[in-house]
Design a protein that fits this description.
Elements lengths: L7 H10 L10 H29 L8 E7 L9 E7 L4 H7 L5
Antiparallel strand pairs: 1-2
Protein name: Mutator-like transposase domain-containing protein
InterPro entries: Mutator_transp_dom
Length: 103
């Protein structure tokens, strides 16, 4: 709960509302488990995205992308952020199929 700016009392209240057992007093063990699970999921997700993009590009690994990012707080003081990377498909035949103005 501290990672979202709430303390132990908020965790107790949340667990009560959700009909869960009271939260543990020491979170280090659980934070490490959560970090490992998030890291594995992230790596698998990114590897799958790369595989799909390469497959879509007929095996070519020279792929144009657009990148955007954001922080939880303004500036660079936040430790929480998100980055999105989107493949830019420049296939003219796809454009002609989906956008009539490209004809």
């Amino acid at each position: 709960m501290r990672c979202i700016g709430k303390g132990a009392e908020s965790a107790v209240m949340f667990c009560g509302i959700m009909n869960l057992p009271p939260p543990p007093t020491k979170f280090t063990k659980f934070n490490n488990i959560l970090l490992q699970a998030a890291r594995e999921t992230c790596e698998e997700s990114m590897a799958e995205a790369v595989h799909e993009a390469v497959e879509e590009n007929d095996g070519g690994r020279d792929i144009a992308v657009a990148v955007d990012g954001s922080w939880q707080k303004r500036g660079f003081s936040s430790k929480n952020g998100v980055v999105t990377v989107t493949s830019v498909d420049t296939d003219a035949s796809l454009c002609k199929k989906t956008i009539p103005q490209c004809e």
